[in-house]
């Protein structure tokens, strides 16, 4: 380390009696109940007396020797040894003077097993070198937050009855600078905030920002469970981004991956020459799809590590929620495995009892400490009560992605409209289970990669029909019960499927059709937020009622979304064919004038401009089991939304 006196460092390099741990800390750690280990383990710059230095602590229970190496000692493995605690915790610790913020370091580990020797990154590092470099950096997380107003009132933005429209994005490819250079956290802050406000989204969700060695993993192969990636700046730079969004009343959700981790040598795998974080048996500890390693959820110290990571992002980075990736892979021991490739649980079943216990504890501890945030599960099976409290037998998540709705709806809209009437059930099936969980309706990044095509390119027909089908899909999503999530690029009909190596095709928004889709999404967000019936009872059956779900011959759905008052009810009609339906009769719950609030076929959106001239008056004609009805025009490949405005004069 340039500018430091080596003689001072060598005079008394390690204070081995220095510790941040109390006996109670150790007890909680062993029990898996220490949820803020980041305050104890890792690298902590401090001053003791007149000596400035850094306290290091690392969990390596099967090591026979641990030292700190770095640029400050030319990576010498013998100069700065740590001392193992005598309480069977497996923690090595020590204070090294002369080391401070900005110094590179690793833990050199000699194992008791197989003469294994390695330089490891710090599992609790808060900042790492920019990949492909792999060293942690001694750092402090000091930052003056300016989001106190948001933090006080965010409960009302995150509660289940609030409108939640999430813009999912990958930081590195949302926008780039000249020569395809990546944008920084601080550069992103004003641009992203202005765009999200313009579009009307309530929250952003970042694909994992946690440090990851392989850029092409999009962050889902995490090594730094306590550090935002340095590709875009420092930890304080990322705090600035979150702070900026909060100051503009935009919530921030972090994607978090406790399901697996990569096999990079500097990471968690074989940390002290043994399987410390992962299961030793590959039938439980190795993921066949992702070629990665699975956490040993039955080990108390591993639970404490992961729980500390989740709370760290909520407390140090003011996250308003975490979306937990690949929950299904955690719940099932036979996930993506053939017979004989997995080990049944103690009762002979396929459920991962240890992972289930971990997920329940995760949600209990998060909501206990931060009742104004949300946890969201990406869970693709029919596991019951994922988003129900632990005390009634659930997993305790606040919400769950509705993968069934996503799959069925995309399968349906991919079909030529001529054949859609034979698959009408794919549209209506979601309402059989819509209120069994607190669902988020995702049109996520997973649907626009790996040859699946962009959203607009999934649609059948010519370019006009593709755009109309996309507008229909998005307006149907915003009308259907459940919170909303849309991945970047879908809001302006990007033609190319997403690539993490390239920015979005922003130039398309100069063209009317793309600009029209973008305007429609903006209008949908504002309508969704301002119309109580479209969000208050997203998770309650009393907020939904079919008018007619059986008009399969015409591929038409009509339904009501309801609030508490009669005047809050809205009527939605979706025409999934390119044939205009003029004078289409729909039963209505109250007589009077029904105002047309929204029409995805509006000319401003790139549509044909068919509509209802602002609204329609009801007739006293029985229809759909109701005393009154309206004659409405349902434009081709379009959604129309009406709201009861006034009674007949």
Quick overview of this protein structure:
24% of the residues lie in helices and 23% in strands.
Describe the protein:
- With 649 residues, the protein is an alpha/beta fold.
- Among the domains are: 6-120, Immunoglobulins (Immunoglobulin-like), CATH 2.60.40.10; 164-257 and 297-401 and 438-471 and 481-534, TIM Barrel (Alpha-Beta Barrel), CATH 3.20.20.
- Helices cover 24% and strands 23% of the residues.
- It is built from 15 helices and 28 strands.
- The strands form seven sheets. It has an eight-stranded parallel barrel, surrounded by five helices. A six-stranded antiparallel sheet has the order 21-22-23-28-25-26.
- Residues 1-12 have low confidence and may be disordered.
Provide tags for this entry.
649 residues, alpha/beta, Immunoglobulin-like, TIM Barrel, six-stranded antiparallel beta sheet, disordered N terminus
Write the layout of secondary structure elements.
Layout: H1 6-11, E1 14-15, H2 23-31, E2 42-48, E3 51-59, E4 63-70, E5 83-84, E6 91-97, E7 105-111, E8 117-120, H3 148-158, E9 165-169, H4 171-174, H5 185-199, E10 203-206, E11 210-211, E12 224-228, H6 235-247, E13 251-256, H7 282-285, E14 286-287, E15 292-293, H8 300-316, E16 321-324, H9 327-331, H10 353-369, E17 374-377, E18 399-401, H11 403-413, H12 417-420, H13 425-428, E19 439-443, H14 463-479, E20 483-487, H15 512-530, E21 544-551, E22 556-561, E23 570-575, E24 581-588, E25 593-599, E26 615-617, E27 628-634, E28 638-646
Parallel strand pairs: 9-10, 9-20, 10-13, 13-16, 16-17, 17-18, 18-19, 19-20
Antiparallel strand pairs: 1-6, 2-3, 3-6, 4-7, 5-6, 7-8, 11-12, 14-15, 21-22, 22-23, 23-28, 24-27, 25-26, 25-28
């Amino acid at each position: 380390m340039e500018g430091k006196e080596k003689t001072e460092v060598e005079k008394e390099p390690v204070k081995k009696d220095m510790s941040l741990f109390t006996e109670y800390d150790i007890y909680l750690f062993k029990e898996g109940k220490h949820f803020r280990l980041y305050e104890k383990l890792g690298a902590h710059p401090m001053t003791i007396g007149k000596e400035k230095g850094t306290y290091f602590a690392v969990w390596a229970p099967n090591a026979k020797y641990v030292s700190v190496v770095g640029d400050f000692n030319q990576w010498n493995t013998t100069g700065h040894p740590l001392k193992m605690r005598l309480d069977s915790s497996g923690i090595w610790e020590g204070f090294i003077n002369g080391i401070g913020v900005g110094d590179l370091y690793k833990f050199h580990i000699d194992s008791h097993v197989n003469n294994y020797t390695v330089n490891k990154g710090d599992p609790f590092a808060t900042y790492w070198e920019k990949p492909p470099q792999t060293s942690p950096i001694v750092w402090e997380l000091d930052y003056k937050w300016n989001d106190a107003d948001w933090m006080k009132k965010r409960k009302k933005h995150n509660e289940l009855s609030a409108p939640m429209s999430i813009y999912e994005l990958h930081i590195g490819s949302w926008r780039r600078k000249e020569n395809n250079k990546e944008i920084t956290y601080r550069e992103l802050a004003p641009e992203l905030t202005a765009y999200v406000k313009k579009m009307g989204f309530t929250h952003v969700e970042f694909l994992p920002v946690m440090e990851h060695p392989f850029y092409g993993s999009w962050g889902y192969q995490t090594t730094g469970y306590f550090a935002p990636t340095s590709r875009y700046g420092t930890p304080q730079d990322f705090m600035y981004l979150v702070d900026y969004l909060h100051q503009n009343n935009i919530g921030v959700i972090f994607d978090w991956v406790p399901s697996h981790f990569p096999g990079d040598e500097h990471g968690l795998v074989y940390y002290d020459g043994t399987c410390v974080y992962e299961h030793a048996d590959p039938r439980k500890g190795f993921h066949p799809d992702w070629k990665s390693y699975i956490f040993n959820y039955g080990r108390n110290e591993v639970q404490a590590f992961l729980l500390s990571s989740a709370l760290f992002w909520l407390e140090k980075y003011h996250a308003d929620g975490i979306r937990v990736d690949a929950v299904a892979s955690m719940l099932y021991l036979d996930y993506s495995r053939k017979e004989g490739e997995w080990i049944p649980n103690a009762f002979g079943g396929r459920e991962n009892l240890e992972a289930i216990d971990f997920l329940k504890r995760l949600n209990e501890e998060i909501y206990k400490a931060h009742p104004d945030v949300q946890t969201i599960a990406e869970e693709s099976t029919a596991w019951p009560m994922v988003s129900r409290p632990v005390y009634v037998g659930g997993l305790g998540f606040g919400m769950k992605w509705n993968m069934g709705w996503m799959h069925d709806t995309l399968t349906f809209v991919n079909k030529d409209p001529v054949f859609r009437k034979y698959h009408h059930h794919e549209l209506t099936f979601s309402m059989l289970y819509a209120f069994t969980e607190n669902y988020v309706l995702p049109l996520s990044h997973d649907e626009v990669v790996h040859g699946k095509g962009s959203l607009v390119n999934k649609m059948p027909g010519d370019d006009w029909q593709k755009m109309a089908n996309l507008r229909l899909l998005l307006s149907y999503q915003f009308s259907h019960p459940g919170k909303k999530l849309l991945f970047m690029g879908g809001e302006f009909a990007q033609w190319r499927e997403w690539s993490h190596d390239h920015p979005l095709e922003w130039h398309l928004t100069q063209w009317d059709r793309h600009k029209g889709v973008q305007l429609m999404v903006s209008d949908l967000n504002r309508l969704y937020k301002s119309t109580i019936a479209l969000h208050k009872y997203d998770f309650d059956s009393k907020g939904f009622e079919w008018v007619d779900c059986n008009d399969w011959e015409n591929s038409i759905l009509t339904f009501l979304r309801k609030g508490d008052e009669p005047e809050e009810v809205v009527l939605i009609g979706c025409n999934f064919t390119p044939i205009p339906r003029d004078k289409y009769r729909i039963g209505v719950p109250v007589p009077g004038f029904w105002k047309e609030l929204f029409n995805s076929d509006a000319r401003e959106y790139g549509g044909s401009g068919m509509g209802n001239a602002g609204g329609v008056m009801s007739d006293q004609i029985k229809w759909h089991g109701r005393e009154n009805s309206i004659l409405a025009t349902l434009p081709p490949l379009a959604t129309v939304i009406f709201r009861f405005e006034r009674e007949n004069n």
